[in-house]
């Protein structure tokens, strides 16, 4: 009796798997693909080597002045020398630990919120949102035992983050209230909310900031100088709240009427039905829209340049006007772009993570 | 429509009243003394005029003018706080009382002087629009620029001056406008334009930005008058006089050979009556200005005379290396001239 043995499986033909097949499928599938691939390679060859050579190979990294930048490429010495100013602005050097401390408080304080299972998470979150701004303000601005640092000395990445943080945490609750108000049955509230939203959406942020810094002082009584940063912050909050309101309203409209009726049938009043039934669903739906607005807000913070606040971008611009560092604008702007990208990319990844975690259905 | 107009009229009147109500003689000096520092409006970044070093200290000619005012009033040049202002904010900041002095690279013109509710106290720097060209072009005068491509910064009077100049000389040109000085410098370097035009003080800064500054030259022609100086609110003559004479004291000190190193010694030993009057060794001319007797000594000691300030910030002692030119003293071929202290 002969035992029947199977022949071993042949490996799949090389034209189906492996790098060669991948290349053929994706890059050289047809004459048009070949043409486009070659064109793309040519463009990459044109663009990438000069960038790499400028940014790395021929760049200068060590030294303390422009004279040390002898290479053809970028002069990162400039960024290194002015790094402190880009991060802290004109914040007094011996007080910079306070900014660092505020950041650590933010990171450590917000940490537990990212734990999945944590008792009383909602209360902790609300408490953090109320207490942290007070602590941060005390740390950054001073008073009560700390040396006072007026907001005119704030700057750099720190100021960008302050505007971004205050804008986001201020605009979200206000925006939700506005969205609810706009769908309210009470005519007075509805009119107020619609007017507010349409007014702030109807003017560009740059105009609003400009008004706050150029027109407002003329109308205020003598001696009453509202802090320039405070003016800008209020304007940013109002402006972004109007956008958030419309995003949230989109979410509210997507909730089927049955949910409202079900909440009412359970005997829930307006606030509880909104808070327990409608908003959790609506907000989850509009996470991409909200994060989109936040990212736009974060980038819009650089508009404060027109009212002479020294955010990250303006700090860099200011540093390039130092006669000892003239001509370093390219390095400065590349650095700014990199920092902005890191923050915006981080936000967008976090929003994707949040969407996945909160995904409890609705997927078709 | 009528109502809108009358509302506007009321508003305008309110603004005007608001502005004039606190611009009374003496009010600014009293307010400054009370708060203990001079609030000074400067530029948000202009090489040589006002910029910040790595430690966050402000430097530049415009900055030094403010420090000199503080030295005159308080005897301490550090009693000054700076508000960096954009070009559009600057006049509002002065009118609304946010700053006491505006020392922000501002050209003195009739309309600004008369209609904006401010007064220029003098000229810290005689500037004018000029041209920067590549030496390879072989041009030695702006008159040879017929047919040239010119890089300009958009939205400034530079464009108008340029078009006036070329029209007056019957020449043609192609303008390329840019938003920032960095872009226009890069463009000149890349050869997209033959010549770059801007205020002369800034052309020297532009030149440093180029990869090989020595290949470029600033042409001798100056096609516009840009006298830059500090301004104060209209209606407070006392404060106006203080700022004006601070500047005069610096110019006088240079003319009389008094500088930051020898000023204290000179104040004690001088035999020259002009010097003695300036430094308060003879008479008390500070009193008329409501300033301490040694006001000029403090200015020169802590900030320097005009020549020192010029050298340190834009002249031979700086990166910009701008020649004195129009800004030399009147007895050395320039325009800087100050009335005597007596």
Which key features would you list for this structure?
heterodimer, A: 364 residues, globular, B: 342 residues, alpha/beta, D-Maltodextrin-Binding Protein, domain 2, 2 domains, 5-stranded mixed beta sheet, 3-stranded parallel beta sheet, 14 strands
Number of helices in the DSSP assignment of chain A: 14
Helical fraction of chain A equals: 55-70%
Rounded to the nearest angstrom, the radius of gyration of chain A is: 27 Å
Q: H/E order of the elements of chain B?
A: HHEEEHEHEHEEEEHEHEHEEEHHHHHH
Explain this structure to me?
The complex is a heterodimer of chains A (364) and B (342). Helices cover 68% and strands 0% of the residues of chain A. Chain A has 14 helices and no strands. In chain A, helix 6 (156-182) packs across helix 9. In chain B, the strands form 5 sheets. A 5-stranded mixed beta sheet of chain B has the order 10-9-11-8-12, sandwiched between helices. In chain B, strands 4-1-5 form a 3-stranded parallel beta sheet. In chain B, strands 2-3 form a two-stranded antiparallel sheet. In chain B, 40% of the residues lie in helices and 16% in strands. The model of chain B is unreliable at 1-23 (pLDDT under 50). In chain B, strand 9 (148-153), helix 6 (157-168) and strand 10 (173-178) form a beta-alpha-beta unit. Chain B has helices at 2-21, 27-35, 61-74, 90-95, 110-115, 157-168, 181-189, 200-209, 237-255, 263-269, 273-278, 285-288, 295-302, 306-313, and strands spanning 38-43, 51-52, 58-59, 80-85, 101-102, 118-120, 125-127, 129-134, 148-153, 173-178, 195-199, 216-218, 226-228, 231-233. At the A-B interface, helix 3, helix 8 and helix 13 of A face helix 1, strand 2, strand 4, helix 4 and helix 8 of B.
């Amino acid at each position: 009796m002969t035992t029947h043995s199977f022949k071993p499986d042949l490996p799949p033909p090389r034209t189906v798997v492996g790098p060669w097949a991948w290349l053929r499928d994706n890059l050289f599938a047809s004459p048009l693909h070949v043409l486009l691939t070659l064109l793309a390679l040519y463009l990459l060859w044109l663009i990438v080597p000069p960038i790499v050579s400028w940014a790395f190979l021929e760049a200068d990294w060590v030294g303390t002045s422009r004279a040390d930048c002898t290479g053809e490429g970028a002069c990162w010495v400039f960024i290194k020398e002015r790094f402190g100013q880009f991060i802290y602005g004109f914040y007094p050097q011996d007080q910079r630990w306070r900014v660092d401390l505020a950041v650590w408080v933010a990171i450590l304080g917000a940490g537990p919120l990212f734990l999945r299972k944590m008792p009383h998470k909602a209360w902790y979150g609300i408490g953090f949102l109320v207490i942290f701004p007070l602590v941060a303000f005390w740390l950054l601005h001073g008073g009560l035992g700390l040396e006072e640092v007026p907001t005119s000395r704030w700057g750099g990445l720190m100021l960008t983050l302050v505007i971004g943080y205050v804008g986001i945490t201020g605009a979200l609750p206000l925006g939700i209230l506005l969205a609810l108000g706009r769908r309210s049955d009470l005519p007075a509230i509805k009119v107020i909310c619609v007017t507010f939203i349409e007014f702030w959406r109807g003017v560009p942020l740059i105009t609003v900031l400009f008004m706050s810094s150029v027109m407002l002082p003329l109308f205020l009584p003598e001696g009453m100088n509202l802090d320039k940063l405070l003016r800008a912050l209020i304007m940013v909050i109002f402006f972004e709240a109007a956008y958030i309101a419309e995003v949230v309203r989109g979410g509210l409209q997507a909730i089927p009427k049955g949910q409202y009726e079900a909440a009412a049938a359970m005997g829930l009043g307006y606030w509880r039905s909104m808070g327990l039934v409608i908003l959790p669903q609506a907000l989850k739906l509009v996470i991409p829209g909200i994060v989109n607005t936040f990212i736009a807000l974060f980038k819009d913070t650089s508009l404060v340049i027109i009212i002479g606040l020294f955010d990250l971008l303006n700090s860099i611009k200011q540093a390039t006007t130092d006669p000892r560092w003239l001509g370093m604008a390219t390095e400065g702007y590349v650095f700014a772009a990199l920092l902005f990208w890191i923050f915006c990319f981080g936000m967008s990844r976090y929003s994707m993570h949040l969407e996945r975690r909160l995904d409890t259905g609705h997927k078709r | 429509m009528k109502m809108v107009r009358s509302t506007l009229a009321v508003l305008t009147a309110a603004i005007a009243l608001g502005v004039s109500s606190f611009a009374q003689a003496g009010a600014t000096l009293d307010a400054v003394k009370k708060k203990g520092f001079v609030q000074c409006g400067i530029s948000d970044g202009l090489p040589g005029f006002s910029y910040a070093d790595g430690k966050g200290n402000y430097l530049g000619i415009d900055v030094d003018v403010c420090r000199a005012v503080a030295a005159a009033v308080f005897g301490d040049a550090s009693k000054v706080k700076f508000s960096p202002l954009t070009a559009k904010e600057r006049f509002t900041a002065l009118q609304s009382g946010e700053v006491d002095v505006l020392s922000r690279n501002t050209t003195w013109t009739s309309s600004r002087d008369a209609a904006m509710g401010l007064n220029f106290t003098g000229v810290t720097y005689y500037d004018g629009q000029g041209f920067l060209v590549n030496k390879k072009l072989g041009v030695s005068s702006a008159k040879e620029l017929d047919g040239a491509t010119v890089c300009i910064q958009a939205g400034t009077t530079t464009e108008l001056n340029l078009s006036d100049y070329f029209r007056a000389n019957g020449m043609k040109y192609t303008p390329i406008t840019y938003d920032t000085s960095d872009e226009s410098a890069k463009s000149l370097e890349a050869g997209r334009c033959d010549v770059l035009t801007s205020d002369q003080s800034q052309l020297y800064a532009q030149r440093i930005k180029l990869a090989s500054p020595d290949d470029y030259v600033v042409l001798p022609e100056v096609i516009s008058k840009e006298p830059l100086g500090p301004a104060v609110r209209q209606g407070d003559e006392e404060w106006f006089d203080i700022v004006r004479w601070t500047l005069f004291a610096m110019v006088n000190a240079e003319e009389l050979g008094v500088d930051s190193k020898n000023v204290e010694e000179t104040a004690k030993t001088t035999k020259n009556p002009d010097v003695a009057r300036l430094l308060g060794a003879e008479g008390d001319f500070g009193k008329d200005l409501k300033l301490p007797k040694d006001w000029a000594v403090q200015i020169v000691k802590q900030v320097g005379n005009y020549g020192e300030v010029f050298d340190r910030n834009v002249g031979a002692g700086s990166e910009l290396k701008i020649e004195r030119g129009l800004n030399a003293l009147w007895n050395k071929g320039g325009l800087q001239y100050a009335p005597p202290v007596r």
